[in-house]
Amino acid sequence: MKRNGTDKGEWKKTARKIRRFNEKLVYDLKFAYVRTGHIKNEFLGFLTVFNAKRSRFVKTERHIRYDDDNERLYLNIYYRRDRKPSEQAPVFVYIHGGGWIGGLPETREAFNTKIAEAGYFVVSLYYGHSPYYPHPEPIENIYKAFAWLKRNAEKYNIDAEEIFVGGESAGAHLSAMAGAISSNPSYNALFDLPDESRHQKIAGLVLNCGVFDLRKALGINFRNIRLYVQSYCGGAPLDEVSDEQWKEVSPVHYVTENFPPCFLVSAERDPLAPLTFDLAERLKTLGVEYAHYHGKGRAAVHAFAVVQILKISREAMFGIKRFLVSHTKRGLLHYIRAR
Q1: pLDDT for the residue numbered 203
Q2: How far is the CA of 119 from the CAs of 6, 58, 150, 243, 335, in angstroms?
Q3: Other CB atoms within 10 Å distance of the CB of residue 27
Q4: Is the overall model pTM greater than 0.90, yes or no?
């Protein structure tokens, strides 16, 4: 018996539902496996290399809520123990990596305390793991943290009008997104941002092994990259992401001549390094100021600069501090520990 038009339509709908169910099941199983691995690695890193060489000159305050409507969103702050309350400090906001599905501020304290050691008021924030917080929620949460900085500028005596932003991997992607939002009005208009921080000025970006073009990243042999990108996009099948959406999640497409100055970090043994070189080429073409440290050798792996026990990480940190100080309104020379 031949199916009539209605039967065919219902059959196709059922087939699509079955396909979507199977795709969702495969995604959920893989996500659970990869996420478990992330938790284990983050815990081991927290106990060992991630926080080794943490500065002893720095005071820490943890788990400060920056959004009254969501108790899960929090930030940690780091500043020198001998800081003079009468001196206004510049701000560095750090956005952790972890494939958008993992990572925590507490596991980046070696890096963050080294920046704080140089005289910066460092804010390291949790912006929400995908797919529970899909695009654009992570960047919108980051702007809520920027608003918190403005509301608390007087309390901490910080310069929240013009801040530095940086991060590694997925955090570098979100940092670059913030840079594009701050310098490209058409990109800014795409997001639901707090009035207090919508036009936040950014003095400079520190981008460590970032993912600046998510669609291009899918074609790179980097472990679990498709799962990471799919999670950031909400867990939906990637073939359902439109061209317009791919562009929106890839900040390299919104870089203009007004993009903030950058310190770029890439690694010889990182398959994603070409994405940093692509960004560097775009910055060069547009005349945007940038410096680029490309790590070489066996230790030059993805996001290596987070781990401060490595020689090349310390070299990268020296360049980062020099970049930050050169773009800070006050020189902070009496604070620098750039060795």
Answers
A1: 98
A2: 70, 10, 19, 43, 5
A3: 18
A4: yes
